[in-house]
Amino acid sequence: MADEERSGRPPAWALAALAVVLVAGLAFAVGRFSTFGQAPSGPNAADIGFARDMQMHHAQAVEMAMIQYRATDDDELRLISYDIATAQSQQSGQMFDWIEDWGVPQRGSDPIMQWMSADGGHDHGGSGAEPATEDELRAAMGMAGDADLAALRTATGTERDCLFTDLMIRHHAGALEMVDAVQRLGSDPRVARTAGGMAESQQREIQALESVQTRLACG
Predict the structure, then answer these.
(1) What's the distance, Cα to Cα, between the start and end of the chain in Å?
(2) Which of 19, 52, 73, 80 has its CA 20 to 30 A from that of 180?
């Protein structure tokens, strides 16, 4: 029997995972309250759609990062997943607060990503005979499907580490497309600044994840 079991203390990995959850929750709260006192700017449909959709997008990134943080034995990936969980929780708090400032519902009735089609630069609304399904739209945002998440939870060792890097690179690529759209279509300077910061950090993380893939010889 392990020392933790004999003493009644939880194992070290559980304490570490709890610490990340608490830090991520604090980051969300900091992000939400960091915009208090700033005069809201008039948003347009792109700003509102971005804030709504990116919160959903970030929530999955945090979920995947927490799965990886709890499971990996790779120190570099543990640090990357920690950074993703805390940074994106903080950004989600900011976007939640924007929507509160704007006086609109946190969730809208339009399909996700519809705001990106305002200038014809993106076609994610299902302009053909059949509208895009929710799963198709989420995939177009780079989000993982249920089978991907199940595989990430059950995989082990290098297989899991490589799967995480692949899923997160795809996820970040979808976020960069959303950032590009809101920078062209949005009107609120707060949104533009925060989106630009997201792009910089996620591009760095993509490079770091690609470096890990090379190191681990991911197929």
Answers:
(1) 38
(2) 80
Chain centroid to CA 64: 9
The pTM score is 0.79
Nearest to 77 by CA among 196, 14, 159: 159
Q: In which residue ranges of the chain is pLDDT below 70?
A: 1-41, 118-131
Instruction: Report how far residue 175's alpha carbon sits from residue 179's, in angstroms, rounded to the nearest whole number.
Output: 6
Which helix (H) or strand (E) segment holds residue 70: the answer is: helix 45-71
Query: Using N-to-C axis directions, what is the helix angle for 189-216 and 157-185, rounded to 10°?
Result: 160
What is the distance between the alpha carbons of residues 139 and 116, in angstroms, rounded to a whole number? 15
User: Which residue in 86, 91, 93 sits closest to 32, CA to CA?
Assistant: 93
Separation between Cα atoms, residue 19 and residue 24, nearest integer Å: 9
Which of 64, 208, 79 has the alpha carbon at shortest distance from 143? Answer: 64
